# Entry
Amino acid sequence: MRLIGRVIQNLKRRFRKSSHHGLGLLVFENTSEVIRAEQILKKEGCDVSVKGPPPELRKGCDLVIEFQLVEELRVRCVLQKQGASILDVVPLNSELLQPVDIFQTRDFGDYLMVRAANMKITVDKQSTMIVNISGGGCPDVPYLAQEMVGKKLQDAPTPRDIGHTLCGYALQLAYEEIQQQC
Amino acid sequence: MSNIVDARGLSCPQPVLLTVEKIKQLKAGKLEILVDTESALENVKRAVVDNNWTVDVVNAVDGEYNIQASKA
# Structure
């Protein structure tokens, strides 16, 4: 059953990459609200992902949440119950209104780097050893690097567990993305 | 074989990757790495230690750093 679930999630992700039909964006006042809302919605089983907003939607926050429009009522309800206030809900019905993928991947041959927002993680493709973590400027970045560099992806502590800042959050996104690619 | 890695002007992770590649080639001896940002300095120092080499000296001049590392 878990395998079927993973296949369905992969198919959904592929579909979402190829088309934004039926998707919308949740806009929040600030990044902390986005992170909190994402956690709430994922805990409730909603199919959401964090993206960079299209330039037209930038309202002082560098992240938005992409969600299935058919779930709008449920999403609003869940967030309202938890006291999370949405600034705007925008349907992605225009070609001009495309969210920006916050991930950038660069292949250095033996090494693969994934950047999520302001954080970068680089892994040795063969051994899956984390060789570098950089970016950010938050006070916990040196600690995150110290704890994670030199360890295999599967053995390293997750930034979610040991990070305390937005850099830790961005690194968690990069960490999840590179796990899928390696 | 030159034992100098000039990673000035490169952004992370490239200084680290060049250093790791050179360490793999040399296996032991002395190595000098040139970087020009503080984050590259920290990342390279970490990579050197993670690969069981020692950071002997770091010289900072005009915003550039010369890292001397070695392994017996």
Remarks:
- The helical segments of chain A are 2-18, 31-43, 72-81, 141-148, 159-162, 166-181.
